[in-house]
Write a structure and sequence with these properties.
Layout: H1 7-24, H2 32-43, H3 52-64, H4 68-80, H5 88-101, H6 112-128, H7 139-151, H8 156-165, H9 176-187, H10 192-204, H11 213-227, H12 233-246, H13 249-262
Helix pairs in contact: 1-2, 1-3, 2-4, 3-4, 4-5, 5-6, 6-7, 7-8, 8-9, 9-10, 10-11, 10-12, 11-12, 11-13
């Protein structure tokens, strides 16, 4: 078993890695999760001059020293089998460590996205269960973890997923008002699938929400632009095309003009 080296000896390699990560971050908005991925990509065969083994050791040392960015990168590596053998138990361990140690981190802190997404990932493991780690399926705990990420951290992806839970009877129970509320929170942060679901609900109207075709079509048009080229593009475009076929020419003109006017506010997301 590899022993943990003294932190003073670790610091040179670890500091170099995180300095490179910082250098890789552009001035415009980039999350800590993006920075961690860029760091690994740059060092692992992209001119960084650091071998895979050295990278893994440095990340492990940084994780042992309590660096959430390193724990996150190790978790994603083991989750996806990138540079290491796929190991969901180890992945769960790193994500759970982040969530346990940083549950009350500043919601708008530099690593808040990593902590929030760790709650989401741990929630996913509890939803399905992880027998090899002794984790039984536990929907209630999964929901609680997701809600913490959505409420305390205000994470857009978590808020979107809570919105989806309120569309399913076997999850949080069907509640259109709650679903629309959570979709709206995520949509205003630039989350394009949330924008599409919100637009569809508002365009057609649901229980407790009167149909508002112009606003609904506006959100669908914004989602169409933001989801372009992603895995969500096809179903988002299907919702948009359906709404366009129903809307009047006047509604389409007004909605698309509104979409163009608000689109710039999402450019930084």
């Amino acid at each position: 078993m590899r022993t943990i080296r003294d932190h003073s000896l670790i610091s040179v390699t670890t500091a170099a890695i995180f300095a490179l990560a910082a250098a890789a971050m552009p001035v415009h908005a980039q999350t800590a999760a993006d920075a961690a991925l860029n760091m690994a990509n740059m060092l692992d065969g992209a001119g960084g001059g650091v071998s895979g083994d050295d990278l893994l050791l440095a990340l492990e040392d940084a994780a042992s020293a309590g660096q959430p960015m390193a724990m996150w990168q190790l978790g994603t590596m083991y989750e996806n089998g990138e540079g290491v053998d796929k190991d969901p138990v180890k992945a769960f361990g790193y994500f759970a460590q982040i969530a346990n140690q940083h549950a009350d981190a500043a919601p708008r802190g530099v690593e808040a996205d990593i902590v929030a997404q760790s709650f989401v990932k741990v929630g996913d493991y509890y939803k399905e269960g992880l027998p090899d780690a002794g984790i039984p399926a536990d929907a209630e705990r999964s929901h609680a973890l997701l809600l913490h990420a959505a409420t305390y951290f205000g994470d857009a992806d978590a808020q979107y997923r809570v919105g989806l839970l309120y569309t399913q009877e076997n999850e949080m129970g069907v509640n259109p008002l709650q679903s629309a509320r959570w979709f709206s929170l995520a949509a205003r942060k630039g989350h394009c699938p949330a924008q599409a679901h919100l637009g569809d609900m508002v365009f057609n109207g649901v229980e407790g929400i009167e149909a508002q075709p112009v606003e609904g079509l506006m959100w669908l048009a914004v989602a169409h632009e933001r989801c372009a080229g992603t895995a969500d593009a096809a179903w988002v475009d299907e919702l948009l095309n359906r709404a366009v076929s129903i809307a009047t020419p006047e509604q389409r003109t007004e909605a698309f003009a509104l979409a163009d006017s608000i689109a710039p506010q999402f450019a930084g997301f």
